[in-house]
Design goal:
The structure holds two protein chains of two kinds. By secondary structure, chain A is an alpha+beta fold. Chain A is built from seven helices and six strands; from the N terminus they run H-H-E-H-E-E-H-E-H-H-E-H-E. In chain A, the strands form two sheets. In chain A, strands 1-4-5 form a three-stranded antiparallel sheet. Chain A has a two-stranded antiparallel sheet with strand order 2-3. The longest helix of chain A is centred in the middle third of the chain and has 19 residues. The model of chain A has no long low-confidence stretch (mean pLDDT about 95). Chain B is α+β, with helices and mostly antiparallel strands. Classes of the chains: A alpha+beta, B alpha+beta.
Chain lengths: ~190, ~190
């Protein structure tokens, strides 16, 4: 699939078929993620591939509930995680991206460059999945500390995000985007 | 270009030709950025396309020097920044990505222990943009080690917004090297860490 086509047609998928995703496909998706650039080529990302339904359910339970019409309901992505055959949890080694060799942050973003580097990899992952006919939805609203306990993530690493991976059961909705003119400036900020 | 090929063959480019770039190609890059997913579709990214030579030079001056044991050397990207016709400065609106509810009065309450997700969401857009550049035969190198506060002054970035990254866009004058990647077995873990 063409790059531009993939970028424009990728959607966040919240409904999955139970169809199995084979190991080779998962490897292709992770390799795409792994080819992302990173701060000083540090590659702070780590991927946990979860197929075990019990672990998937436990992780789904760490998702924050959302308020709809004054009622707190289960996050739609929690159901997606239970439905999809595979959950990929993406962790970061802390104190590397954005830091000097001794672990000191070098910019005003502190050590939060792991958020940036992880997202570069995650975008590759979602695009690669899409070209293989698979859906993803990037989940951020969950209790990362609890999820780290469940998955035995050691100190020095943080869980950043996760996505179910599976065959879409239905098409994702198009989230309307701001016009390019709303987010684009020439030479200086606010100069249109 | 095919997606997986683009992902695997993209390199960080530090040597460029001085060739001009068609506006249409730049627009295609920005369009790719715009289609990235984001927290609650908040789209906190803002793109400043810098073509003005004086501003490009001022941005180049914000790059941090590389500290070696015995001396400091200029950032290898500095030369690139002065050669290319276009630098894209990616900014973020603060208090949107990762926030619990929409824009509230007073302080923002964030939903997770990561606080503001602006670093994450801008990077999703940046990866789309570097792939879109590569698919059109253009090179980029994502720069993080610069004085963002100084760059914000140069670009008149208002309060509530921050500059996250800068990247030159130009015609490559070299084949980028593929820095070695860790083996997949080093970074992929089954079921538990």
């Amino acid at each position: 699939m063409d790059v531009f086509e993939a970028i424009k047609n990728r959607r966040s998928i919240r409904h999955y078929k139970p169809d199995i995703v084979d190991d080779k496909t998962i490897q292709t998706v992770l390799e795409a993620a792994h080819w992302a650039p990173s701060w000083g080529n540090i590659q702070c990302w780590r991927f946990i591939v979860i197929r075990d339904p019990k672990i998937k359910t436990d992780i789904a339970d760490t998702l924050s509930r959302v308020k709809i019409d004054n009622e707190w309901v289960e996050n739609a992505a929690a159901k997606s995680i239970k439905q999809a055959p595979v959950l990929i949890v993406i962790c970061a080694e802390k104190g590397k991206a954005g830091c000097s060799a001794d672990g000191t942050p070098v910019t005003d973003k502190g050590d939060y460059w792991f958020m940036f580097d992880i997202a570069l990899a995650v975008e590759n992952l979602t695009l690669a999945a899409h070209t293989l006919g698979l859906g993803t939805v990037i989940v951020g609203g969950f209790d990362a500390v609890k999820a780290a306990q469940l998955l035995g993530v050691p100190e020095g690493y943080a869980i950043v995000t996760m996505t179910p991976l599976g065959v879409p059961e239905r098409k994702g909705q198009i989230s309307p985007r701001k016009q390019l003119s709303e987010v684009l400036f020439k030479d200086k900020f606010n100069n249109r | 270009m095919e997606v997986l090929e683009a992902i695997k063959s993209r390199r960080s480019i530090r040597r460029y030709k001085t060739d001009q770039i068609d506006d249409k190609k730049i627009e295609a890059i920005l369009e790719a950025g715009r289609w990235a997913p984001s927290w609650g579709n908040t789209q906190c990214w803002r793109f400043v396309v810098v073509r003005d030579a004086e501003l490009r030079a001022k941005l180049t001056d914000t790059l941090m020097k590389i500290k070696l044991p015995d001396k400091e050397i200029p950032n290898p990207a500095a030369n690139a920044m002065n050669t290319v016709p276009v630098i894209i400065a990616v900014c973020a609106e603060i208090g949107k990505a990762g926030a619990k509810h929409g824009p509230g009065g007073g302080g923002v309450e964030y939903a997770t222990d990561k606080g503001d997700w602006f670093m994450f969401d801008t990077a999703l857009a940046v990866q789309n943009m570097v792939l879109a550049a590569h698919a059109q035969g253009l090179g980029t190198v994502i720069i993080g080690a610069f004085d963002a506060a100084q760059a914000e002054k140069v670009l008149n970035v208002p309060k509530g917004y921050r500059v996250v990254t800068l990247f030159p866009v130009g015609v490559p004058d070299q084949e980028g090297k593929a820095p070695p990647r860790k083996e997949l077995s080093e970074i992929a873990i089954k079921d538990k860490f």
